[in-house]
Amino acid sequence: MTDAPASFPAPAPLDVPPFPLHVVRTLRGAGHEAFLVGGCVRDLLLGREPKDWDVVTSARPDAIEALFPRSLPIGKAFGIITVVPDPDAFPGADPVETATYRAESTYADGRHPDPGTLRFTDAREDALRRDFTVNAFLLDPLPAGGAPPRVCDFAGGRADLAARTIRAIGDPARRFAEDRLRMLRAVRFAATLGFAIEPATFAAIRALAPGIRDISAERVRDELLRILTESADAGAALDLLDASGLLRVVLPEIDAMHGVEQPPEFHPEGDVYVHTRLMLAGLPPHPSPRLALAVLLHDVGKPPTARLATLPDGTLRWRFESHAAVGAVMARGILARLRCPNALADDVAAMVGNHMRIAEAPKMRPAKLRRLLGAPTIDDELVLHRLDCESSHNSTDILDFLVAARARFAAEPVLPPPLVMGRDLIAAGLAPGPAFKPILQALYDLQLEGETDKAALLARIPGLARGPQEKGNA
Ligand code: ATP
Ligand code: MG
After folding, report:
1. Which residues sit with Cβ closer than 5 angstroms to ligand 2, an ion?
2. Which is nearest to 133 in space by CA: 119, 150, 118, 151?
3. Which amino acids bring their CB within 6 angstroms of ligand 1?
4. pLDDT digits 0-9 by tens, 95-153
5. Helices in 364-434 by DSSP H: which ranges?
6. Given ligand 1 and candidates 131, 166, 187, 219, which is best to mutate, with the most ligand atoms within 8 Å of its CB?
7. Matching CATH number, 264-408, of 3.30.160, 1.10.3210, 3.30.70, 1.10.150
């Protein structure tokens, strides 16, 4: 075997932004080797816009820092320097992670390279320590003598890219045992690029899936969110996660939806898992994490609440009493386990908890309806509701009603500021306490139903009807 890599011409014209080119040019000018590497090259070859630009070089970290005064040594222990652009010279450019060629480290814990095992090496060994063949390309954007740019392919990624295949470099079981996050990355790349996972690579994931438990919740969360929000078909992505064996480890509550039957008259599509995957498949492109998680979790309360009830005519039917409320509590627990930000967890739990209530909209009093339509999550809630209908009985009556009600309310502010606030209750002589919230809510409802006089609202408070001056005489 020779050390000369296979190489092939880069697509022309090559769309590389000025700052990564500047980093490569500066390193070259100082006599070092330097290439664009990894995902950015893969994406260029696929005609996709790269998320970030990475450079790999023969220069040692100290030499990189010396060449770029604006560099940050955040990853220096792993041989990575973050090179920050001068905003005057490169307006709007992102930093470029610039890594010295390094060898595969040992990973005693399956998560972090062992400290002290960093060893610098050459381009070939650096390429072969990477995770998948399509992630190991090197691109020379500035060849000597003005020759056309070429891609170096040490790992055989060209054929896999053409066949749209995710294949581990080397022995997949060994590579996943080294770093278990690579299993979720494989699913993410397959789902977001629309690739298949090569059979031996997939078999290794199935065998090693329980090891994903050793990966931090934050890293698992980031991969899951990207799988759900960046896949063209998030339903197919869920199926892949399921088939890989990873779903039952990272989201056992979703795995539990398999085989949970539903009344066919409301859910001709099938069990709760099938319903959920259909809804995910119907997500609009680039959904927010909030919408994607709400769709994933909206029926998570069904498996634990499923009961067979006897109808008056003696037939049996599946019921899911309080599944939305149970689901909201479960969603909160799952999102806390995945270390999701509280604001996101609050919104998702509220959407899960509310998703059945929205069906009662046509029967709601005006105040309640206006409150529903004024919720900060309403846009996503309407999409959730639409998907829920489209993925089951397919009736849009309620959605049509809500859209019409929204248009009706659009002429006026959907939710005017409340006339009576907590400080008014205190001024009226009430001691602050747990009764404040229901009182303020009830007064606000009256306001939304047409009472526009503040004194009249205050006069409706039981016990204050005789006026605040009599406080304490009761
Ligand atoms: P994207 O930026 O779209 O997430 P990417 O392929 O660029 O995809 P990054 O996480 O940015 O992924 O990593 C850049 C490159 O570093 C990868 O293409 C791969 O070559 C290498 N890499 C990243 N994580 C790992 C890992 N866990 N094991 C081995 N190589 C990795
Ligand atoms: Mg990247």
Report:
1. 39, 52
2. 151
3. 38-39, 51-52, 54, 130-131, 135-136, 179, 181-182
4. 999 999 999 777 677 666 776 778 999 999 999 999 999 999 999 999 888 889 999 99
5. 366-374, 378-390, 397-410, 422-427
6. 131
7. 1.10.3210
Which atom of ligand 1 lies nearest, measured to the CA of 185?
27
Is residue 2 pLDDT above 50, yes or no? no
Cα angle: 316, vertex 322, 324; to 5 degrees: 120
Q: Which residue lies with its CA nearest to atom 15 of ligand 1?
A: 38
For ligand 1, atom 5: residue with the closest CA: 39
The CATH number fitting domain 165-250, selected from 1.10.110.30, 3.40.50.720, 1.25.40.10, 1.10.10.10: 1.10.110.30
Is residue 28 exposed (0-12), middle (13-18) or buried (19+ Cβ within 10 Å)?
middle
Q: What distance in angstroms lies between residue 50's CA and the mean position of ligand 2's atoms?
A: 7
Which atom of ligand 1 approaches the CA of 54 most closely? 14
DSSP 434: T
pTM of the predicted model, to two decimals? 0.86
CATH architecture for segment(s) 6-163: 2-Layer Sandwich (3.30)
pLDDT, residue 413, reads: 64
Contact 111, 178 (CB under 8 A): no
Please give the distance, rounded to the nearest whole angstrom, from the Cα atom of residue 12 to the centre of ligand 1.
Answer: 24
